[in-house]
Amino acid sequence: MPQDYLPVLFQVMIAIGFAVTTLVLSVVFGRAGRHNATMDTAYECGMLPVGQGSPRFSVKFYLVAMLFVLFDIEVVFMYPWAVQFRDLVAESPVALFSMTGFAGILGVAYIYALKKGALSWKT
Questions:
Q1: How many angstroms separate the CA atoms of 95 and 109, rounded?
Q2: What is the pLDDT of residue 22?
Q3: 67 with 36, same domain?
Q4: Looking at the domain assignment, is residue 100 inside a domain?
Q5: Phi, psi at residue 50, to the nearest 5°?
Q6: Is residue 29 in a domain?
Q7: Which of 5, 56, 83, 108 has an alpha carbon within 20 to 30 A of 37's alpha carbon?
Q8: Same domain, yes or no: 34 and 71
Q9: Which domain holds residue 86?
Q10: In tens digits, what is the pLDDT along the chain, a chain of 123 residues?
Q11: Rounded CA gap, 11 and 14, in Å?
Q12: Three-state DSSP class for 114?
């Protein structure tokens, strides 16, 4: 039984050996980097890096992004149901009522988000 794992052991040893050899050779034969002020500055597509590194975004941006993901995922759940709609309704109308309830809950959530001003960029 242990001889069955011998090829796996060899492969692991070769992989580790290759990684260690590559790192050692890069240290031995590699050039040490020269540091100066020009080389250590961030490269911004030819523009001089002036000001803050990243701008601050409003919380509204993240709220709209989360709502988009939430409603987008709900549409993903509706797609398989729509593909199988005829077969599901032919068996029982329960599938129609369950999806109507699901879409109704989504509609209520959307109206709630609108009333709370979650999708308004001005406030």
A1: 21
A2: 96
A3: no
A4: yes
A5: -125, 135
A6: yes
A7: 56
A8: no
A9: 59-116
A10: 778 899 999 999 999 999 999 999 998 888 777 777 777 777 767 666 676 767 777 778 888 888 888 888 888 888 888 888 888 888 888 888 988 999 999 899 989 988 988 877 775
A11: 5
A12: helix
Examine residue 46 and state whether it is found in any structural domain, yes or no: no
Query: Is there a single domain that holds both residue 67 and residue 106?
Result: yes
69 and 31 part of one domain? no
**d(C-alpha 21, C-alpha 18), whole Å:** 5
**d(C-alpha 2, C-alpha 115), whole Å:** 67
CA 94, CA 67: separation in Å to the nearest integer? 29
Dist. CA 101–CA 82, nearest whole Å: 15
Q: Find out whether 71 and 110 touch, Cβ atoms under 8 Å.
A: yes
Distance separating alpha carbons of residues 32 and 44, to the nearest angstrom: 24
pLDDT at residue 91, rounded to an integer: 87
DSSP 74-104: HHHHHHHHHHTHHHHHHH-THHHHHHHHHHH
How long, in residues, is the chain?
Answer: 123
**pTM flag (> 0.90):** no
